[in-house]
Amino acid sequence: MRRTIAEDPDWSLVTVPNLSVFCLHSIVRNFEEHPSYEDLPPNQKDFVEERLSPSLPLHVTANTIHDGVYWERCCKRRWELCVVSLYGHSWKRMFFERHLENVIELFIPDVTGQCIVLELVPLCKNYVKRLNISQLLPPIRELQGEEEESCSALGSDDERDGPSMDHFDFSILLHLLTNLEELHLSYAVQQCGMNFQWNMVEMTNRDCESLGKALKSCKTLKLLKLQQSHVDDKKCRMLVKYLLDHPSLRELDFSYNLIGDEGARALGKLLTQSKLETLNMSSNQIRGPGAKAIAHALSGNPALLSLNLRLNLLGDEGGEAIAKALMSNNTLQHLHLPANRMTRPTAVALSEALLQNKSLKTLNLCCNQLGVDGGKALEEAMSSNSTLTSCDIYQTEVDEQSFSFINRVVRTNQEEERRADELKTDELIN
Fold it and tell me: What is the domain-level CATH number for residue 343?
């Protein structure tokens, strides 16, 4: 009786891969030259995506590989913190939004070619819904040694004309991003260290003009946030000019800028001609006249749901104007007026408004000087109000009795609202 003994005692037929596995490995190895795997069943697609290199060129993978494990690997390889829930649970969306953000944030005018951005657009436009740009770099203006002296002596055209643009020009991009809904911008330079200069935190007039044109062309935009960019009255009016007839804009945030009364008047005009639902103007320089313009628009505005004027200079002139507007406004739900140098007259005017207004749910008056009499007026008004479910009057110099009473009424209103919501839910279920 004869026997054949293999040279490898551990060898067995089980360890030989199936032919299909060899084929899948071949697809992985040759994917850059032949990027096709559409006809594979789902489990085999996963096998390929788990083994493809995250370094493959984007023009190969962008419109070939669907959302899933491959893009998760690409994200985690590139960034330490990856919260996919912030991107609609889409790894592909996260990758392309953050990749485009990085390209824009590192763009240097007259050094970086616009083609770097434009070539990326066909690959990412279907997946980019939000851009959060935390820095925009200015052009390089420094001249060294003899070159600087020569330009100074001759008064060269380059020095007179300056760079072709001051920061990245959004007018070349936004109209191409057909799914963009949110744009967060800050014209600032991050991590500049000892080289800090104030012009590193500044939006220029040219920037403003190009951004305004870009915003007008982006018909899908719903939220615009432009913070910490030294936007003054002139720039605010310029931006508003381009936003007046915007078809989809619903939320506008110009907080932490230098906008005063003239800019506030422009925003008042915007409120009358748009469908804005949220306006955030906190930490600007709006005074009484500017607040009056916003209040005038508010009195006849059927769309605005939230108004934030925290950390401005409204005073009682502005506070009383907004309170008067609340008597005819039936849509505003959230009003924030902290730290605006308001005193008793504003509290009295607001108490009169609260007796009539039935839409306001949130009122924030903290860090004003309402005083004991102002607190009494609000206490009296709250005894007849059943809609306000948040009333912040911390550090307003009201007495303890008024403070406690207002908080009790607020808690009662919260409980009533909760019960009403439960009844509506039960009715929908039944």
Answer: 3.80.10.10
